[in-house]
Design goal:
This protein is an all-alpha fold and 54 residues long. It has one domain. Helices cover 67% and strands 0% of the residues. α1 crosses α3 (39-53).
Length: 54
């Protein structure tokens, strides 16, 4: 059997996204610090891109 996927709360996602938007750390550093990968990491990239467009 495989392992269960983590389910992150909206508050956690917002916290990680705000950290990504600050630009003080790379996405890889944030992913390691918060223990995230895959889809949430892609969401961080999208959030950073959207912030640069506005």
């Amino acid at each position: 059997m495989g392992t269960k996927r983590k389910q992150h709360s909206a508050q956690f996602k917002a916290e990680v996204a705000m950290a990504a938007l600050s630009g003080s750390k790379t996405l890889a550093e944030l992913a390691s610090e918060y223990g995230v990968q895959g889809g949430l990491r892609a969401g961080l990239i999208a959030a950073r891109v959207r912030a640069r467009l506005h």
